[in-house]
Design brief:
mainly alpha, globular
Length: 489
Amino acid sequence: MINRKDIREIATGVGFLLPNILGFLAFTAVPLVISLIMAFTDWNLEMHNIFKTESVRFIGFRNFMQLFSDPDFFRYLGNTLFLMMGIPFGIAGSLFAAILLNNDFKGGSRRVWGICLSTVILIVSLSALMLVGMEATATMMLITGILGIILIVGCGVGQTVYRTLFYFPHFTAGISTYILWKKLYSPENGPINNALRPLLDAASPVLAKFPEGGAHAISYLMVAGALILLGFGFWRKIRHWLDGDSGTISLIISSAIFGIALALMGFWSNLPVLTWIVLGGGLLAVCAVLVIGRSYRCTAEYGLSDAVIISGAFLVMALILTGLSNVVWDLPAQAAAGLTPPKWHTDYNWAKPALMLMGFWGAIGSNNMLLYLAGLSGVSQELYEAADIDGASPWQRFWNITWPQLSNITFFILIMAVIGGLQGGFEMARAMTKGGPAGATTTLSYYIYTEGFSTGRLGYASAVSWALFALVFLVTLFNWKFGNRYTND
């Protein structure tokens, strides 16, 4: 039986929690319920406001039916997924930075440390003299001076300086960072294009003399290299499946990823027929393997981490080679007309890569780097000592010790990055491109904003937001289902 003292203690506890409870109800729970109701109505601010008498009507699933028949939705979903292709590079960059920053820069004798510090000072000084002789701009001199001071101070003080500097951009407000990068990307007087312009001017006469047939041959070789890369990844996955290192579901997911890569290559590259032939051959190979069977069995979902991370990395690298092949294809003709720096966020073809480069810069020193640093501190040094006794190379030490020991952190980072990628893109688009040019950088989150607050279609915007919630929920379900098993793969 509850006495008055218990009731008083419960009331006291609820009183302390009441501000958080009211805040959650006012700013999360109630708006969530209202948005769900709005998704099934025709609420439009142009028709339903205080100046008009028309009432809001319940229209059932009409907004969702319109959503899946709207080409803009799939286009902006494609933009969102395209920008998420930079996630593997961000994860790799943060891991590489963590491995570098995990070392003691001042280790060894003082003599060696003094030689390293003197070498850095000499390199920075020579670089400054070269820029003065080349009559570089004041901005280039300033950037070089800042980088030189960072190198000198880092070598003199140690890893703490670099850890602080790498993580420092994370404290900066997002909008201010985007405005800074918008200035850096300025087509006319931005520092990036000012640095590229003399290099392109010097390269244009040389590339203009390059035969067009040779450029086409290089383009074909790059596409062929992308196909070989995908073929190697596919064969690697089949071999793991036959050896019992991957399950059937893992093989199916990898096959789907490689199929998507080949389909996109067929759409983008100059070899669509060959791509579809390889795609058909790959599908036949999968069918043949499934018919033949395998000698070693494992659970169906075993190896999902490999299917998602490694196969996804193969997809991204193949698509990068395909994109570069398209650049090389027309390079002599462009060089004859004179190579100019990209217009970055103001050009339809360069807008998304520009945002991805900015995202890569931000991902290197983000919380992911701190997570990897914490994970590296927990790796047993006895494992590395045993590997050294066995004569393992640095790559073997990383692939067989460091990478497996960081598997749980990598999976967490990947899941959070995918969720953030699906929900992100609004601040970048709003501050830098307004969703342009021609919708090239409009993501689902920015699409929700424009539909809800620019056109006033609140009901349709709510339907888009709940479709986005469904995508995020599927990723979360995947994490719940297979997250604990990843560390054992």
